[in-house]
Each structure stands twice: as C-alpha cells, then as structure tokens.
Amino acid sequence: MSETHVTDEATDAxxxxxxxxxxxxYNMLGSVADTEDVLQETWxxxxxxxxxxxxxxxxxxxxxxVNHALQRRTTITRRRETYVGPWLPEPLVGDDAGADDPxxxxxxxxxxxxxxxxxxxPLERAVFVLNEVFGYPHTEIADIIDRTPAAVRQLxxxxxxxxxxxxxxxxxxxxxxxxxxxxxxxAALGGDLAALMEILAPDVxxxxxxxxxxKPAGLRPVHGRDKAARLITKFGSRRDPRGLDLxxxxxxxxxxxxxxEGDAAYAVMVMDLTDEGDRINGVYIVTNPDKLTHVIKDxxxxxDAKDGEEx
Length: 311
Fold this sequence. Notes:
Blueprint: H1 3-29, H2 32-49, H3 57-80, H4 111-117, H5 122-133, H6 138-145, H7 149-166, H8 174-190, H9 193-199, E1 200-209, E2 222-223, H10 225-237, E3 245-251, E4 254-261, E5 264-273, E6 280-286, H11 307-310
Parallel strand pairs: 1-6
Antiparallel strand pairs: 1-2, 3-4, 4-5, 5-6
Helix pairs in contact: 1-2, 1-3, 2-3, 5-7, 6-7, 8-9, 8-10
C-alpha cells in the first residue's frame, strides 16, 4: 500500500471522528484552545501510527484523545493557579437555532455543569463525560483509561454522586429559558433594580470571568440577591447600552446573550434557572477577551435583539 494512500486513509478516519473527539475533549477541559491543541496532538499520534491494521479507528482515536486530554490537565491546573478572579469555561457559542457550530451538534454540557465538573479529579471527570454524556459502558472506559472495570465503576459512582449533589437533573424548557434570559437582560442593561430583584433567586450566585483583562471585574463569586443585583447593575451601566449590540445565542446548548462592541465580542452571559424555572439562581459572565476570540458576530441574524434600548 502506498504511503499516500495510508495518509489519506488516516486523514479520512480522523476527520470522520473529529466532531466526537472535540466534544469529548472539550467537556474534559472546558477550553476551546486546549481542545484544539489536544486534537492536534491526537492527529500527530494517529498519523504517525497510521490506520493500517486498526480494526476500530473510532475506539483507537478516542483512547488517544482522552489520554492526551488527561495529560493536558496538568498544564491547565498550573495555569489556573495564577489566574486572576473566578475561572469559567470557554463558552461554545452557536447561532440562535443552536446548530451553527459543529461542536454544538455533539452532546451539549451546559456551562453550569462544566463549572461543577471542574471540582472532580481528572479521572473522575473523564469517566463521567464518557459514561454520563457519551454513553460509553464501564468496560470500554476501562480500556480507554487503562483501569480495571471495578476501578472505573468506583470512579463513576464518586463522580455521579458529587455532580448530582451539586447539580439537579432538572432542565427548564427552552421557551422558559428564553423568556427568563430576555427578562434578565432588560433588567440588567436597563438598570431596573426592582425587576432584577424580582427575577433573581435569594441565593443567586454571579461569576464574572475577566481573567484580569477586563477592569473592574469581581475577584470572587458574589452570593446573595442584594449583592448580585448591585454587581449586575454596575456591570450593565459600565458601558453605554447604545454602543452595544445584543445577540441571543445558544451557548453550550442553552439560551444566552452575547454582547458585542462593534464586531468584537465584549461579554457572554449565561443564566441558570431554579428547579421551578421561575427565578435565576446562577449568572455566568465571561468577559475575558482571550476566551471570546472565536465568537463571531453573525449579521445574518438581524432579527435578534440589537442595541441596549431594544433588548
């Protein structure tokens, strides 16, 4: 078999499974940039080995990608030690229909869930993502991470118990999420403190991730409705709303809003609802420009809300 044919076969196999690999690795790392680096490392390992003799390319590629992602966690942990303020995952932003970005067509994990997954060990997180999100059985996961099935079951049990204790299984209907998002945006950017207090849950928490690149930004999460409302109205008044364009988008599979200054993304705001779906108990605001470089303003969606006064 010619070298060119082997290379073409390896390339085709990799591209056939790239979307799956992206979803797996991103949910393990929470960073688009690190995910792309891991996929590059996976490709180099795969192309160096070649597809010849591999009966199950999908399983082989998943094993390579997951183990490269586990190794990458060490780098991410060191980076996080010097990160300024709260750290939030890098948001995956699609269009209003949620099907613009290929990554969003894979199994979506909400931004709030990714925050919870950050509290797991790397192996617990890998097992949770493979099992709970992508449906891999414990026996296959054991082969992927080179552990016994019994060890994988134990990791899965610990991860599931931890996640379910912090994250309810309830997920609001998309229409309810959209309505809550729009109410929140009107109150926040309009400076309507009374309306904001009405929609925020008493125990709401606000995370603002500026990475030290946006001033001022909260250096730690803010808990409680009174403090949260003051922080949000301060954030909303920091910029002239007439200079902002609003686009309602799907972020990690959920309704959210993206604020643009000109063509550049200024902030991504994601709201998490209470079990009843009538109040907001979590607000995630990503303003770190390093995490928004891949967020593109789509002029095709001119039907979305634009400018602060129309939101």
